[in-house]
Amino acid sequence: MEPTQVMPVASLLSIVTVEFGGHALLKFITTDGGRLGELRERFFRAGHAHAGILLVLTLVYWLYLPRAGYSNGLEWAFGAVLLAGVLAQSGGFFVHLGVGQAGARSFGTTLTRVGALLIAVALVALSAGLVREL
Are 129 and 69 in contact (CB under 8 A)? Predict the structure, then answer.
């Protein structure tokens, strides 16, 4: 099976979890009277927003990946790197929400940075393949 047939399904199903997260955030803010606190609410919003936008990015990525001329193995590898990056970057916000302190680094902030690097690797690989195929 082609990675560009399977991976978009994972992206689309993941968007459903982002929708649930939006519902949960709204519930926390409106019914719990701001019980999360400013720091946690800010990181909840950041994680939620990054997840949604980056998952939409993956859908565009899957459209262009076959045009880059990579083998199935490399398409699987770059797709996995991209999804891992999306999960790490957005998930890092949620980890920091749970364990972080205001103004201090945590495992969550490190995870967010690692996710950004993984996304960059996947995007540069796609770009290189597309340029090579011109």
Answer: yes
